[in-house]
Amino acid sequence: TVTPCRFPTGPCGMRIPPFSEALDVPLTVGALSQRLFPDPSPGSRPVGTGFWVSNYRAAIQESQTLVATCREQACSRVLIQMPSLNDDEGIWREYARLLSLVQEAGIDVLALDGYPEAIQEPQLLADKIRRLLQLVRPGALSGVQLDIEPYLLPGFLDDDAQFRRYLGTIETMHEALQGRARLSMVIPFWLATPTVGGRPLAYAVMDRADEVAVMSYRTDLDEVQEIAEDILRYGDVIGKPVWLAVETTRLPVELEIRKSGRRSPLTSPMPTASKPKLANLKLPARILMAKWEY
Q1: C-alpha 66: how far from its chain's center?
Q2: Cα 151 → chain centroid
Q3: Which residues of 105-141 are buried (b: 16+ CB within 10 A; e: fewer)?
């Protein structure tokens, strides 16, 4: 079975196992769509699929393979990790050319970045966005997706001030984009539980972003829509696209986090350094993303 983002060789020519060798139940894009949406009627179907690529150096080296694989899998978008601010100008220019190549192939391309400490020093992340915008021509970038995960910071879920700092960071990133590209935010499904100003934090994020991608941390496709239902409904109300991430490999044991008061209960993957990584060119894809219309 051919599956999303399977690359025949790594950047050094090493053989990569076929996806079917790495999964118990491999899924193609078509199989995923069929299982998620057996009813082809409007309002109950995916309108796009996408993949994350975390290894930007390998993506630059294997750019033609990346495009060919996305075409083979009917991929409508690809999200590629941004270089580090410490990378030299050559890497940044090659990355900008990669984005143009993917966009010219008819595939929406988004730059990917984010880390928890961004809410403490948002200007550093905004500087990366501005640096990228200086290198890409107009129309070569569909958007920027940020996976900040501020809840990994100690005490985040107990502090309204940190919630507001998170929301302020999103506003700063939106301003940095200067209307040249969409701002997409990655959020966990349970972000609809904590509240800020009497409203779900997830809704406040959606109000400030152009779209969201919801991490379900689930392999059971029936559960994915169920646990994201509130976010899907709110996205429909305000006209914001919602993408749902589907895990395609067996997950490690999850840690259930229970908080007292208004933030109870929450469930999320174990927040450790061994947290599963997003798909890259060296490994079979673990997660694929489908855009849903509710």
Answers
A1: 17
A2: 16
A3: bebbbbbbbbebebbeebeebbebbeebbebbeeebb
Neighbour count for residue 22 (Cβ, 10 Å): 17
Which 3-state string (H, E, C) describes 165-234? HHHHHHHHHHHHHCCCCEEEEEEEHHHHCCEECCEEHHHHHHHHCCEEEEECCCCCHHHHHHHCHHHHHH
pLDDT digits (tens, 9 = 90+) for 92-110: 999 999 999 999 999 999 9
Reduce the DSSP state of residue 237 to 3 states and report it.
Answer: helix
Chain position carrying tokens 């050319």: 97
pLDDT-based confidence at residue 210 (cuts at 50, 70, 90): very high
Residue with the bigger pLDDT between 128 and 287: it is 128
> Would you state the structure tokens that stand for residue 30, as one six-digit string?
């078509």
Q: Show the tokens assigned to 104.
A: 């010219």
